[in-house]
Amino acid sequence: MLKFIRGKGQQPSAERQRLQKELFSYRKTVQHGFPHKPSAVAYDPISKLMAIGTQTGAIKVFGQPGVEFYGQHTLISNSAAELNVQLLEWVYGTGRVLSLTASNHLILWEPVGATLVAIKTLPFDGKLKKVSSLCCSLNKDIVWIGTEGGNIYQFDLNSFSIREPVIYHDIVLEQVPPTYKLNPGAIESIRQLPNAHNKLLIAYNRGLCVLWDLETSAVIRAYIAPGHGQSVGLFVNADGTQFTWYHADGSYASWSLTNAEAPKNVNYVPYGPDPCKSINRLYKGNRGTAEVVIFSGGMPRSAYGDHNCVSVHASDGNKVCLDFTSKVIDFFVTYQNNTDNVQVLVVLLEEEFCAYDLTDSKVPVIKAPYLHSVHASAVTCNYLASQVSQEVYNKIVHAGEEQDADCSHIEWPINGGILDEEVPDDIDNEDARLYEILLTGHEDGSVKFWDCTGVVLKPLYNFKTALLFGHENQDDIPAESSEPVDESEPPFRKSGLFDPYSDDPRLAVKKIALCPKTGRLIVGGTAGQIVIANFDNGENDSAPLKASSMNLVSDRDGFVWKGHDQLTVRANLLDSDAEPVGDVGVEITGVLQVLPPASITCLALEANWGLVAGGTAHGLVLFDFNTFLPVFHRCTLNPNDLTGAGEQLSRRKSFKKSLRESFRKLRKGRSTRNNPTQVATTLESRPIERQVEARSTDDGMGSMVRCLQFAKTFITNVNITSPTLWSATNSSTVSVFLLHLPAPLTAATNIPPVSGNAAATTAATQPRRVSAQLAKEIQLKHRAPVVGIAIFDQHGYPVDQQSNSSAVSPPHRLLIASEEQFKVFSLPQLKPINKYKLTANEGARVRRIHFASFSCRLPSDLLAHGVGGSPSKSISTRSQENAQDVANTSANNTSGSVGADARLYHEMALLCLTNMGDIVVLSVPELKRQLNAAAVRREDINGISSLCFTNGGEALYMLSSSELQRISLSTTKAVTPQGGIEVEELVNEEQDNPVDDANSVTEENHEHIDATSSTSTHSNDPSRKDRTKPLEVDIDQLKGGVTLTNGVNSTTESNSPNRANETITSSVGDITVDSVRDHLNATTTTLCTTTTEETVGRLSVLSTQTNQTLTSANMKDVTDFNIPNLMDLAPLSNTTETNSSSVVIKSIITSISHEKTNGETETVTTKTTQREESQF
């Protein structure tokens, strides 16, 4: 009874519920890296914007660094062709872009906030109406649509309908010379003359090109290719006097627009005379006095047909053939000020994005500011160094600049959009700025440093470990000469960074550690190698490379290692007079080899003590890299396991025993089926808790060291902190090692020597080696693998995140997180304080933990009521809060009404990632759930295993093999795109009664247009005025179908009193048509705030926002449902404001309608221009 009363009093108060909303909220923010499976690219030379479409339906628009917009095609009839983007065409200068999908749908996109919204859709039906090419008018009002049937339709952008006249190929053939008697075939290219907007240049598939007059609807001139070679496309020069026509046989020729006669070199094949492949795209321009032709394809079919090339041929004899390792999707060339002077070549490949300087005859590479290929070599591990100091950051940047010395520094041409460059207020000193750096380990042994502080993922430096290993006579690979060996061979030049192949799988990086204050770098590999390096300014003389080894199984006589051999450090690098390895600004101290050469499973670094610890499947090692001497090692192998491969010589269960248990389970199941009442009684008498399968005590992989942690904490008594090393294994064995450091190291940690000045003097004259001894050992009963160990003070701050050890306030507590539960112990007594069983309650397993700081501004009178009553809550302004990059951070603080007397409230929380892709936020030390968010799809194993947390409540994970998704769990800390685009108005408004035509917009699309026109097209809409300003909205709330990809989005906040006992949750259950129908039937008789909120919670993937003046939604097939019952929700709902409630109800109806019609839930997007006021 006492437990029941105590349990009822543990529910969070209303103030705490409000504070949770101010501190914690889940949203997806930014995507970094290279889009997965790109399929189309387009460039707007007027707005200086670039758009990329993918096979998965994503559209991304990029301008100047920091200006990014995302859009996502949605499924209508569950066909993958509806997502595959085949063509992109800009409506030049307006900020709008057209996309053509493989299902023959034409969609117009417009930027709203940080998102691209599909405002109009036009479906084409019939095989003859299969769209083959697009051309947007320079007057921004018409798009000419060429089809495979050979006809060209005029598409009015203002009314979004087809208008007359249609350019039929029959009419064109009547005006073509009689020598051409073929069916011209599909429309391959349409170009409007830049000097005469009333004329079109049309290229047909079968060697016919005509100049068409739009005013007279007549052919002005016809151009016929000799032999009627298959055409591919056209390029018209800037002044509209000539065009270049390229073909499928690898030939191209420049024709004069004023003369229909064929040029002399009409059959010129640049890589002839052998049969060549098709030229897929061609641009032409000038570099000084030389003429430059840039084209893709055209390779000799038999000899080099498998090469993916873009060739740059100049008339002055400079020829370069850029040979890429992945397929060329498309490319474009930028010109200087609407002239024919070429500037930059931008190539979109299947696996990377490259740019080259065409103003230089050598065509040097340009380091693009975004769209970097994270997976140039396969990513094998991720590590996020949070709050890196300015000094270390500058050292990393300096080392990276040496690597980029050969890159061109021409100005980046894609610089459109508007970016608010606001100077942060709370960062007065540049030295106080802290950075977030992502380190990716790769299969080829390299570690890449990425600055992920802001919206743009900037590559900083590429650290290579493969140079250290190999044979003595293995020199660096010589640079390939750009001159061909054979005159007939194209002038190939290896281009691009994508190289998916590795020479040696043992080089793969498994674990990384970087000290954010000193710049010490530790890299652990697959073959037990640990590379120790340090970033410096190159001022100190580099010492020769050192190598050492530590054998974990030296005392196990019967041990036999059956795995791969260790890597051999190149002997010539170990000589005393050998030149230092690596780049300028990086000193590689040495290599530690752990034996047996099994993969490194965990690393821990304490740069102030000069110690690094590494763990493998066989044990752990502790190494002093200052003196380059081993400290100690400990083997964690079971004495019975002598195979080294983790396999047991004797099985835990015999076949007879296993068979006996199987029969017992069968009998037990049969008895429960015969007596169902017995099961019910048992379930009622016991609390609902999953049964966790017992683990064997002699599991073969139990010896694997899963985590290592250095900490200065209370382990011997409550008065003095001691340096310690904590280790934990797969079998829940936690060991504490007491470290004895020399006096200088002890002094470096702000703790005076215990024995006084005499001891310090003796230690200085006679350096004492670091030693370690086992102090305590903990064996958890459930024997689940330990995922993480953390020691935190009374405020909840981890000891290892403290820059000043004297700021750590006792008492300390120990958190041991296994795969199944969290447990908090007191120090130094190691008495259990608290426990949170995740697996038993929810069936999920812990994958990763991290401590993060959350903050918000609260009025002082609210703080006086003791909102933060927990000892882990504080109102201090700690230095680590300056880590936020305010310039690129959207401070989405909902406390809009807080006055000047508000104070900054801080709270530490524990972030937990589960194997189901959920992120759970727990308070410390109470371990009370604060937030539950379905962040990663549970099927996405790579995404879950790659997720990394920051100290500010954000996380990064691999969305695909080449993309990173950034998410935020904090209400006030979110890195979101802050750029904008000036969107021009459509000239004419939507027609109230559009005419139904076979080629016009369908009735469904008209409904969509009418429903959204009030917020999309009216010139007096207040949101238009602020279109260039960043809207304070969640990206996913405007993303439509993107939210369905990872299955989560937050609904409108509810003030229902029935939610006082609930945590904030963003997770979404599986919604079916039957479950929605059952819910609607259940709410027919009685409707209250609880059912309203439950409905909203079940359909939380819907994107709803509160608009200040009006809100609209797309209503489809409404008559199929019992509408009055749902409309009763409006007057009875207290969950949101009146407008917001209306939006939720309409969105629910629309979603149900779509689910019934198409079998796929479709989200409805509404727009917002103003945030809701705070609850305080």
Automatic annotation (TrEMBL):
Listed under GO cellular component are: cortical actin cytoskeleton; plasma membrane
Q: Where is the composition biased (Basic and acidic residues)?
A: 1021-1031
**Superkingdom to which the source organism belongs:** Eukaryota
Q: Which Gene3D superfamilies match?
A: YVTN repeat-like/Quinoprotein amine dehydrogenase (2.130.10.10)
Instruction: Give the signal peptide, or none.
Output: none
Region Disordered, residue ranges: 869-898, 987-1031, 1155-1176
Keywords in alphabetical order: Cell cycle, Exocytosis, Repeat, WD repeat
Which residue intervals define the domain Lethal giant larvae homologue in the entry?
268-363
Q: Name one GO molecular function term.
A: GTPase activator activity
Q: Kindly list the biological process annotations in GO that this record carries.
A: cortical actin cytoskeleton organization; establishment of spindle orientation; exocytosis; Golgi to plasma membrane transport; regulation of establishment or maintenance of cell polarity; regulation of Notch signaling pathway
Bias (Polar residues) occurs at: 871-897, 1011-1020
| Family, as annotated | Belongs to the WD repeat L(2)GL family.
Annotated protein name in UniProt: Lethal(2) giant larvae protein
Natural source organism? Ceratitis capitata
The major lineage groups are:
Eukaryota, Metazoa, Ecdysozoa, Arthropoda, Hexapoda
